[in-house]
Design goal:
It is a single chain. This protein has about 100 residues and is of the alpha+beta class. About 45% of the residues lie in helices and about 25% in strands. Strands 2-3-1-4 form a four-stranded antiparallel beta sheet. It starts with a strand and ends in a 7-residue tail after the last strand.
């Protein structure tokens, strides 16, 4: 299993609510395309106004295929422009985690 975490920081309530609405729109598009849908999370304690959009994939091939399709889809550009207008510049980053398995020595 692979988990993609996209960390986003916003400024203020309006930007927060806009990001929540945007992630709903992203999930609707993902559902239409048969792609993995994400879950928007925020910390219970820690940095203020930071959110994490998290996606779970069964394998690396699925993650790579959906990312290529996302980048090639004309409708995703408008969603990315909306994200650029909401997110606080310079604070976003993403991670890709994989499920840990036992090491054989």
């Amino acid at each position: 299993m692979y988990r993609n975490r996209q960390y986003l920081t916003v400024s203020g309530v309006d930007a927060w609510n806009s990001l929540v609405a945007l992630t709903d729109d992203i999930n609707k598009l993902c559902a239409e395309r048969g792609w993995t849908q994400g879950t928007l999370l925020t910390r219970t304690f820690g940095t203020f106004n930071e959110l994490c959009f998290e996606f779970d994939y069964p394998d690396l091939a699925t993650y790579e295929r959906e990312l290529r399709e996302w980048m090639a889809d004309p409708e995703t550009g408008a969603l990315m422009q909306r994200l650029d207008s909401i997110e606080r510049e310079g604070n976003g980053y993403d991670e890709l985690w994989m499920e840990a398995e036992p090491v054989t020595i």
